[in-house]
Amino acid sequence: MFLPQALSAGISAALQIMLLWQPGAEDAAAHEAVRHALARCGAGGLLDDVTALATGLLRVATVSEAVHGHVYEQLARDLL
User: Fold this and answer.
1) DSSP state letter for 45
2) Over the chain (80 residues), what is each successive 10-residue block's mean pLDDT?
3) DSSP 57
4) How many angstroms separate the CA atoms of 20 and 15, rounded?
5) Cα 17 to Cα 13, 30, 32, 35, 67, distances in angstroms
6) E-strand stretches of 15-76
7) Are 38 and 11 in contact (CB under 8 A)?
8) Residue 24: left (phi > 0), alpha (psi -120 to 50), or beta?
């Protein structure tokens, strides 16, 4: 039985692993964790697509930090 929530959770977990686990590092444990997260929800075939999405998100976050980093730092100081 196909559960959209399970698919969404699996893809989200895979993206989090890719973005938080030293992006760009060739780490076997990270790749295995991503494969496992996708396989658990039946999305193992989406590995290349999820990898491309994570790469794009990382680029957007990098540009956003470069452009707005000073604003983020000020917000962090004000909120913490």
Assistant:
1) G
2) 83 94 75 94 93 92 95 93
3) H
4) 8
5) 6, 7, 10, 10, 25
6) none
7) yes
8) left
Beta strand ranges found along the chain (DSSP E): none
Strand runs labelled E in 33-72: none
Cβ-contact 10, 52 below 8 angstroms: no
Residue linked to tokens 């929800």 = 41
d(CA 67, CA 18): 23
CA dist 16 and 10 (Å) reads 10
Q: CA-CA-CA-CA torsion for 17, 21, 25, 27, nearest 10 degrees?
A: -70
